[in-house]
Amino acid sequence: DWRANEPILMAIGPVLHPDDAVANKMSALYGRAFARDFIDIDATLRSGRYTRDALLALAQRADRGFDPRIFADALGQATQLDPDDFAQYGVTGPALDDLRSRFAEWRRELLDDDDGKAAGHRPVDTGGASG
């Protein structure tokens, strides 16, 4: 596992710093895009502790080869995976539809940002949190 931060000391002993754990989960989503990777990153975003931009920054810090366009392709896998892949983790029905919708939206944002950069436009940073 990739680490940029010192472990956090807890009663059970040292544990991975949350930023490092999240960066590793982003790497997993980027590299393999399993149902559990989508579920973990979705939970991370919904916790409110990290924004989409923060997750992208952590992924880029952990992997210098991280490419947002390839990550956007990985996000597209959320709609391609069998519902049973998610069901084994208790994500079914409307919860699965919502998860897939959130990742489809993120994918569109990444692709739109990339299109703007390719056309010579840079997205305006309003300083607001996304996610």
Give a verbal description of the structure.
The protein is mostly helical and 131 residues long. The chain has one domain. It has six helices and two strands. A two-stranded antiparallel ribbon has the order 1-2. β1 and β2 form a beta hairpin. The protein is globular. The model is unreliable at 118-131 (pLDDT under 50). One of its GO terms (molecular function) is transferase activity. This is Nucleotidyl transferase AbiEii toxin, Type IV TA system.
Computed Rg: 16 Å
Helicity level, as a percent range? 55-70%
Q: Helix/strand/pairing class, anyone? A: mainly alpha
Instruction: Indicate the overall shape.
Output: globular
Quote the average pLDDT: 84
The largest sheet is:
2 strands, antiparallel
Strand order of the largest sheet: 1-2
Q: Give start-end ranges of low-pLDDT stretches.
A: 118-131
Question: What is the rounded distance between the termini?
Answer: 25 Å
N-to-C series of helices and strands: EEHHHHHH
**Helix run count:** 6
User: Based on DSSP secondary structure assignment, what is the total number of beta strands?
Assistant: 2
Portion of residues in beta strands equals under 5%
Total discrete domains: 1
Organism: Micromonospora halophytica
Keywords: Transferase
Protein name: Nucleotidyl transferase AbiEii toxin, Type IV TA system
GO molecular function: transferase activity
In short:
This protein has helices at about 20-30, 35-45, 50-60, 70-75, 85, 95-120, and strands spanning about 10, 15. With about 130 residues, it is mainly alpha-helical. It has one domain (about 25-120).
